[in-house]
Amino acid sequence: MEIHEEQIKKLEEMANTMRQDLIEMLLKAGSGHTAGPLGMADIFCAFYFHILNHKPENPFWEERDRLILSNGHICPIRYVAMARSGYFPVAELATLRKFGTRLQGHPEREKLPGVETTSGPLGSGLGQAAGIAYAALMDTHSTGSGQAKKFKVYCLMSDGEQDAGNIWESAMFAGKNKLHNLIAVMDRNNIQITGMTEDIMPLESLRAKYEAFNWHVIEVNGNNISEFINAIEEAKAIFEKPTIIIAHTIPGKGIKEIEFDFNWHGKAPNKEEAKKFLHELRTIGGKIKSEHE
Amino acid sequence: MNKFLVKNLFDKAKLVMTPTRDGYGKGLVKAGEKDERVVVLCADLAESTRSLWFKEKYPKRFIEVGVAEQNMATIAAGMANYGKIPFISSYATFSPGRNNEQIRTTISLNNLSVKIAGAHAGVSVGPDGATHQALEDMALMRVQPNMVVISPCDAIEAEKATFAAAFNGKPTYIRLAREKTPVFTTEAMPFEIGKAIVLRQGKDVTIIACGPLVYEALLAAEKLEKEGIDAEVINNHTIKPLDKKTLLASVKKTGAVVTVEEHQIMGGMGSAVAEVLVQNILVPMELIGMQDKFGQSGTPDELLNFFGLTHPFIVKAVKKVIFRRGSGQVNKKIK
């Protein structure tokens, strides 16, 4: 699927809109995660507005691509992408984390159609994605009317959750079974809740580790939408093994003063901060004038 | 004797002895035959959990995950999410023990139709010792919303329970035992999840049991009859949802209760029954089970006796509750 410069520009604009939605919803919620969702805005934008084969009006469509979010705490950016692509009204974003909301603090499958799995406790998403991928391949290979299941299973995970043993059990399983319909994306932003990943529990070399587990590994700049889309295209052409895209992202991306700061992993902006952040996003770092001011 | 129970019920020499895990293996094959969506996952214990029997019949629907129970739970959640009916088999100490959080988040909270079969439950596992004797598995499972909990009393009931679980559309835990235990029920005994079975009618006391110890409860009732005490025995195979109607009807009639299980008293079947009783009717109650202890190595018989889980202990407990109830006629017979 070729992608033109103009499309990329449009996606980048959408990613900026999504970041603004995110800051506004986190301010209203009064709690939540800021850094990860900002860093992953470009990737979520690429998924929901270009990569995914989905029908927002029919979240249970059987042939949809499955997007499994393993690190559930970054769900606000998924909610934003879902609202902007038509799963539910954008106004509903204001209900994040409020009593009675469908937009739970950590996403729940039973509450909001389209989130695919309940997540939050780290390390369990890759296994569920591998389970779906395995089941789909079973049906593809089975005789009879078994039509090939063409959908892809994507699993987004954080780098911090690579600490969890469950991830590596699932990585082994996917490698053993050559789950080529499974494409994992790791948000390699180098931070986790209490510090830098390499201080808390060194993860490198992640490439060598996944290769050793029989995965195809691609590394990209996760804040470059066209680079990311190209990586997905490459992954789709691999039929011998699962693929993982290690997406190097900047936590807090889009707001200079919080970029790379792990202190923004698990907190939401206050009113003053939100105003400043929104101004920065609306003016693209002071490059243009905001119509809001 | 009723048609739900075998002839020669109390003639140990003539009883067929089979472990409940064999019933699980048979039930899997039967469920797999009926529905192609049934798949079985195992964590390197196919022979021991009897999921091997399914593997031999349906190799393409058998998935080996290695010694990785956490992963097994998440893979199964994914497969159920897609539309399969996965059974996951291991020892109960590992599944639902080791993988408890994965079961909570990815199966129960997701409300997915995954079946968890925990083999080697209870001290009757024997020589393997405390590490492999699951005594808290029902407690772990029954506190999870959406989860159904079943503890079959013999191999025939385990087969029926496995088959029924395949098609109930809910997260379900099935508790299994390692050692051979009496096959004392018949094919004629009905099995419906959530429907307790009165195996023996009586008016003086209600003995509520689950798992292979239901047989000990019947033995106790037989001994009690000789002492003029008429015990009702209930096979309470479904711990959750509990069959409140059947249990309360019996307890209202008898006014005294003893529960029997091969599990910790805390959080087990007896606790579940007590929770229902205290909110409905005040009656004396004794709970037979593990008294906040781990097991140890030994033969199943040695261990069941050492931990006070066999029929003489049930008889004692029955006399205790009847004494506490203070009913004149029955009391006089107790020394």
UniProtKB/TrEMBL annotation, chain A:
<protein>
    <submittedName>
        <fullName>Transketolase</fullName>
    </submittedName>
</protein>
<feature type="domain" description="Transketolase N-terminal">
    <location>
        <begin position="13"/>
        <end position="276"/>
    </location>
</feature>
<feature type="coiled-coil region">
    <location>
        <begin position="1"/>
        <end position="28"/>
    </location>
</feature>
<keyword id="KW-0175">Coiled coil</keyword>
<dbReference type="InterPro" id="IPR029061">
    <property type="entry name" value="THDP-binding"/>
</dbReference>
<comment type="similarity">
    <text>Belongs to the transketolase family.</text>
</comment>
<dbReference type="Pfam" id="PF00456">
    <property type="entry name" value="Transketolase_N"/>
</dbReference>
<dbReference type="InterPro" id="IPR005474">
    <property type="entry name" value="Transketolase_N"/>
</dbReference>
<keyword id="KW-0786">Thiamine pyrophosphate</keyword>
